[in-house]
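Fill in residues.
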């Protein structure tokens, strides 16, 4: 004899609370190096200063591209391990990386400068000169006398 069961759509439904919990669990952010290197951005009246922690980087191999409101930095970290050793753990990053930054205002890329000291890359980004507002005087033309 065949058993018949009634289809109950509500039994396959989940609550909004469960759906939101699943959404948050499935959308966790990646860890550490995948989010980018630690950085600071601060602003003065006429420039932005971007600082990026890049320990172990050869500063001559850092590539910086600055244009309008974005700065892209690319670098490589090579950690060398001696041959014939037993590695117990390896947490230091190794490989090629890049990170893009969007600034709050346009910059003058021609005047950008960068320095590297004690593992910190500092990029000086002068703000672009904005068109200055000026008063425009209305000219009147007097009709010619006939």
């Amino acid at each position: 004899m065949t058993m018949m069961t009634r289809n109950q759509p509500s039994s396959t439904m989940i609550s909004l609370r469960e759906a939101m919990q699943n959404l948050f669990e499935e959308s966790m952010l990646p860890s550490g190096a995948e989010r980018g290197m630690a950085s600071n951005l601060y602003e003065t009246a006429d420039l932005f200063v971007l600082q990026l922690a890049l320990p172990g980087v050869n500063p001559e191999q850092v590539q910086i591209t600055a244009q309008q409101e974005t700065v892209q930095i690319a670098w490589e970290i090579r950690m060398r391990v001696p041959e014939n050793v037993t590695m117990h753990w390896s947490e230091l990053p190794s490989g090629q990386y890049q990170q893009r930054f969007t600034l709050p205002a346009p910059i003058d890329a021609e005047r950008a400068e960068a320095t590297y000291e004690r593992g910190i890359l500092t990029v000086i980004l002068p703000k672009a000169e904005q068109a200055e507002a000026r008063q425009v005087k209305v000219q009147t033309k007097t009709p010619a006398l006939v």
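Residues 42 and 49 are 5 Å apart (CA to CA).
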